[in-house]
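Researcher: I'd like a structural prediction for the single chain below. Treat it as a standalone chain; there are no partners to consider.
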Amino acid sequence: MHKIGFIGLGLMGKPMAINLIKAGYSVIVYNRSKPAIDELISMGASSAKSPKDLAQQVNVIISILPDAPDTKKVLFGKNGVIEGINPNSIFVDMSTISPIQTKLIGNKLLEKHVLMLDAPVSGGDIGAKAGTLAIMVGGKKEDFKKCLPIFSAMGKTIIHVGNSGSGQLTKLCNQVVIAGTLSGVCEALVLGSKSGVNIEKILEVISSGAASSWQLSNLAPKIIDRDFEPGFKVSHLMKDLKYALETGEELNIAMPTTSLVNQLYNSVLAEKMGEKGIQSLIVSLEKLSKFTVKK
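Model: Treating it as a single chain, here is the predicted structure.
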């Protein structure tokens, strides 16, 4: 397993592929955008002409793409992975998609004697670059064990959580917590800033106590600096929340906080900030409060 195919060199995929190269793996990449391919080639990767071409050269393929239609296209579209993949290969989907879609894709691959793991990640671009991602893996345990050294090159916390689709369901739980926590962070920033107390001192204090969180430590400073560049995009989180709410509805679970945050993000989209970072949630609360957070 020293030769890996990697599909999707976006905000997360590119640094993850780079970490595989640094770990000594021979990496073959495929991506729609050529600049990312050129950068990886300069670091020692090789490129494939198509997903089919890539699949013919490896026995492990990793993809990290925006949504299920993108994953299906590279797998089952013209010159897709399925046309060239070798039997008993492992396809690892590190995208975040619906657990239902994951199972459907896995069953279709199994018809071609291809194994699948769903292994979405958490940690944003910071974790992707540092190789400290949390990786939650669904699928057969023996397949997980085979790929564990590969995961270890990209992440720090790597856990097999159950059968196919379990990784995706765990990721949806992760996104629900992020959305709710970030909403609280944004409300606190508006409350503290509008009250006149020094917002940086508020952050210093509450970051060291029970209110501490990744969102508070990493995104609150960006909000204060009006830095809305993405570590994880609004559009991607909203896609994840949609899947979480759909799953909650199927299970008859009340998810009022997630529903509210999802609606607040709709107003962020109205500001044409869908490609900005998820910290842009503050914009919605600032509009409602008629106040902009300041240092």
